[in-house]
Write a structure and sequence with these properties.
By secondary structure, the protein is of the alpha/beta class. Helices cover 48% and strands 14% of the residues. The protein contains 8 helices and 6 strands.
């Protein structure tokens, strides 16, 4: 449902001078379509988090909010080539908005799930599977002794690195601008 508005916003932002886009929803909705309409790099927080996890650990797990997100994230893990490294996609069964309204409860659930990922999955790192968890990484790492990765921060830094390197989205084939139709 968010993709048409996302694509329109990317066009507006680039017209106003934006040089990169971060899709801050862990399902990376509309990522390929966004890359078609964008000139600058478009980074999804799921892809960024997974790629960071593969660089700094051999095995990792992902923890998201609701069980309904697990199958979509599992598909993204495969798409991004991390099937061998990602041990499990877990959830805390708490809606996104409850991360704020029930922050202490959410934190406790995340700590318990990270510990299970470490102990049961052999995870050396955990990727937080929701942008609403971004502000918890340091505290969760301290509480569990596990490297906790926030895809939002990684995506922003990745976008900065790509822009700083002078890279843009390739328009040679797959991500060519959509053809104008009459």
């Amino acid at each position: 449902m968010s993709v048409p508005t996302l694509l329109a916003q990317i066009r507006v932002a680039e017209a106003e001078g934006s040089v990169a886009t971060v899709i801050a929803c862990f399902d990376d909705p509309g990522l390929d379509a966004a890359r078609e309409v964008a000139t600058g790099p478009v980074i999804g927080i799921c892809q960024a988090g997974i790629q960071a996890a593969m660089v700094i650990s051999k095995r990792f797990s992902i923890i998201t909010t609701l069980s309904r997100s697990v199958p979509a994230i599992e598909d993204l893990v495969q798409r991004y080539g991390a099937g061998h490294h990602c041990r499990r996609v877990r959830c805390i069964n708490l809606p996104v908005l409850s991360l704020e309204s029930e922050s202490q409860h959410a934190f406790s659930l995340l700590v318990a799930e990270i510990e299970r990922a470490r102990d049961d999955d052999g995870a050396e790192a955990v990727v937080l599977g929701c942008a609403g968890m971004a502000n918890l990484t340091e505290e969760l790492s301290r509480a569990t002794g596990v490297v906790v990765i926030d895809g939002v921060t990684v995506a922003v830094k990745f976008a900065e690195a790509l822009v700083g390197s002078g890279l843009k989205t390739s328009k040679a084939n797959a991500y060519a601008f959509p053809r104008v139709k009459s």
